[in-house]
């Protein structure tokens, strides 16, 4: 039941993204998930073993790093959509602006720049 549509879902191991991922897979989308580690990708793969043909992974260790999503947005066939849910979250906050706000802004800006440079097929970013 493939729609033929291809989506990049950033932060796929997060709470909100996990619900989005299920809905996308159930609707027949092919989904490239960005996660911070191979272990997170393996966990998602196990959870959706019956939908393995619809899943792909890109490791993005630091969403705020320059060009962090450049490789993730390149797909063949190309991506149609991007759903950006990745955002830093941890309990050891020393400076909320430095630890949460700046990486979230830089990460979002980075995803948009990567799409602009390398994924002109993308019709919508959410």
TrEMBL record:
GO terms for molecular function: oxidoreductase activity, acting on the CH-OH group of donors, NAD or NADP as acceptor. Keywords: Oxidoreductase. Residues 7-121 form the NAD-dependent epimerase/dehydratase domain. It comes from the Eukaryota. InterPro entries: Epimerase_deHydtase (IPR001509), NAD(P)-bd_dom_sf (IPR036291), NAD(P)_dehydrat-like (IPR050425). Pfam families: Epimerase (PF01370). Belongs to the NAD(P)-dependent epimerase/dehydratase family. Dihydroflavonol-4-reductase subfamily. This is NAD(P)-binding protein.
């Amino acid at each position: 039941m493939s729609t033929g549509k291809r989506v990049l879902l950033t932060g796929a191991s997060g709470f909100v993204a996990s619900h989005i991922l299920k809905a996308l897979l159930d609707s027949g989308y092919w989904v490239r998930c960005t996660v911070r580690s191979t272990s997170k990708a393996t966990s998602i793969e196990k959870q959706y073993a019956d939908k393995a043909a619809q899943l792909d992974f890109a490791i993005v260790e630091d969403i705020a790093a320059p060009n962090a999503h450049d490789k993730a947005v390149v797909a063949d066939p190309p991506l149609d959509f991007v759903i950006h849910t990745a955002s830093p979250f941890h309990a050891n906050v020393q400076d909320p602006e430095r630890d949460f706000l700046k990486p979230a802004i830089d990460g979002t800006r980075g995803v948009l720049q990567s799409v602009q440079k390398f994924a002109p097929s993308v019709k919508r970013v959410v």
